[in-house]
Design brief:
By secondary structure, this protein is mainly alpha-helical. It is 56% helix and 11% strand. It is built from 11 helices and 5 strands.
């Protein structure tokens, strides 16, 4: 089977931006996937002038030929991340005209977080439009969530190149900001590690130290147990389905412990 080679045509793309698929990729699967993409355009309420860009944003590097180290989706994600941040920043600046920088920054960090982007990806069923090796999405919930959130940013980057910042902003604000207050209220979007880090710098002039105590379960269903300490002053433990989730839970537990002690 011959490796599929596909070059993108756009003023912002370069000679390296080419899709080089693994020769073992099922071509029937690719054609079925390609025919499904108009459904995604309807959900995005945006129809690409250059459909190659949409395809490029949805092809995970696991599908690429092993010799190709250049992932267009990752480059589009880099661009889309900035387009997303600017779009949300502009929206918040206009809507919350009486709020200070601290409020706006915290609000923005929640909206553009991977957790929130994944919630939105689930709403539009994005995972079924991503061309990816099956074993890449079967490993862990954490990896699947990261994949869909990153792909959302890739799509935003693709829309920006396909049209303009104005069009990308329209799509982002309509998609991301719908039922935002309800979603934020029911989703834990706090970065407890960052909050704990800031508290430690302010109160103790030192960093919290995290360590993995143990791991349990099979490879595809691991559970991690972690401990966090602030010198010999405070410590707490927690667990989660990934190292990051466990550390977030541990940091949250320690913050609650410190808060309870301060309130006594």
């Amino acid at each position: 089977m011959v490796t599929t080679r596909h070059w993108l045509s756009s003023d912002m793309m370069n000679e390296y931006d080419k899709i080089v698929l693994n020769p073992q990729t099922d071509h029937k699967k690719i054609e079925k996937w390609r025919k499904s993409l108009p459904q995604l355009e309807v959900k995005l309420n945006y129809f690409f002038k250059n459909s190659d860009l949409l395809e490029a944003s949805l092809i995970h590097k696991s599908i690429y030929d092993q010799e190709s180290q250049h992932s267009i989706a990752e480059r589009l994600e880099f661009l889309g991340d900035s387009v997303l941040e600017l779009s949300i920043t502009e929206y918040l600046f206009k809507i919350y005209h009486d709020k200070d920088e601290g409020f706006l920054t915290k609000k923005r960090s929640k909206i553009i977080s991977k957790v929130y982007l994944n919630k939105k990806a689930i709403e539009i069923g994005l995972i079924k439009y991503i061309l990816v090796k099956e074993d890449e999405i079967k490993l862990t919930h954490q990896k699947r969530s990261s994949l869909t959130a990153d792909t959302m940013e890739s799509i935003f980057g693709a829309i920006f190149i396909d049209s303009s910042y104005r069009e990308a902003k329209y799509v982002i604000q309509n998609l991301i900001l719908s039922n935002i207050d309800e979603l934020i209220a029911h989703t834990d979007l706090q970065n407890y590690k960052s909050i704990l880090q800031e508290f430690c710098h302010t109160e103790f002039a030192e960093n919290p130290v995290y360590e993995i105590i143990k791991e349990t379960g099979p490879e595809h269903q691991k559970k991690f147990y972690t401990k966090v300490s602030i010198g010999d002053k405070y410590s707490s433990r927690g667990s989660g389905k990934s190292k990051k989730a466990a550390e977030q839970k541990t940091a949250h537990n320690l913050l609650k412990k410190i808060q309870n002690k301060l309130n006594k």
